[in-house]
Every structure is written in structure tokens, then in C-alpha cells.
Amino acid sequence: MYVKIYLKPLLNERSAEMNFKDKGNKKWTSLMLTAHREKLRELKKREKNRKKTVLDDQEKAAINSKLQQALQNNLEVKIKYYEDKRYKTVIGVIETVDINRKELIIDERKIKFTNLLDVKLK
Q1: What is the pTM of this model?
Q2: Which CATH fold would you assign to the domain 57-121?
Q3: Could you tell me if 104 and 98 are in contact, meaning their C-beta atoms sit under 8 angstroms apart?
Q4: Distance between CA 104 and CA 113 in Å, rounded?
Q5: Contact predicate 118/58, CB 8 Å
């Protein structure tokens, strides 16, 4: 015979409001040193404040010429781009360029032209 356990009678008022899907650091903060907690807070602040760098016209022209060269000669490229408040890098051969949507596809990843930061030919 199975025993049914009801959570609401077992929990006090404050913990009943807590979200059970929370898998962040809340569970582990009691085991952390204060210096670790401070560093984690600083890291979260830096990640929230990370903004995309603005490219000038010369940098955009250089990226454009490298992309054209890579497309024409089917060269492998290393692309640095901005997505979800992070800087990401992908290496591969450009599959297609969609001018209507203003994006390129490399290794099944769609990268908007406005998010491109740097292109290096391999």
C-alpha cells in the first residue's frame, strides 16, 4: 500500500511560496563561502551588463570582403558573433547567405549580419 504525502501541510507558509523548479545557487549558498557568493554576484552583474560592440564602417567593410572571399573560394572561417548577451565563436564553411533575412548559415547556425563582430579566414 502506498502512502500519499501532501506537500502543503508539511511546508510552512514561507516555503510554500517558493518555486520548486529553482535549480540555481539558492540551494547551495549555505555551503558556499561568502567570497564565493560575492564573486558569483559580480559574475551575474557582468553577464547582465554585457553589450554588443558597435562596429564602424571600416570594420564592416573588412568583414564583408572576408565573407565574400570565403563564399567564392569555399574557405573555412572563424566567426565571432554576439547572441543572447554573450560572445560566441563558430568555425566552419559558410553554407548559405540569405540576403532577404540578412543572415548567414554556418554549421546549421543562423547568424544575423548585425550580430557579426569578426571574421577570420582559415
Answers
A1: 0.62
A2: SH3 type barrels. (2.30.30)
A3: yes
A4: 7
A5: no
Which tens digit of pLDDT belongs to each residue from 34-49? 788 788 888 887 777 7
- For the sheet with 76-83, list strands across it: 109-112, 103-106, 86-98, 76-83, 116-121
In whole angstroms, what is the distance from residue 27 CA to residue 39 CA? 17
H-type helices in the chain, by residue range? 7-10, 13-16, 34-48, 57-73
**CA 37, CA 43: separation in Å to the nearest integer?**
10
User: 17 with 9: CB under 8 angstroms?
Assistant: no
Q: Where are the domains of the chain?
A: 21-50, 57-121
Per residue in 16-34, pLDDT tens? 444 444 456 566 666 667 7
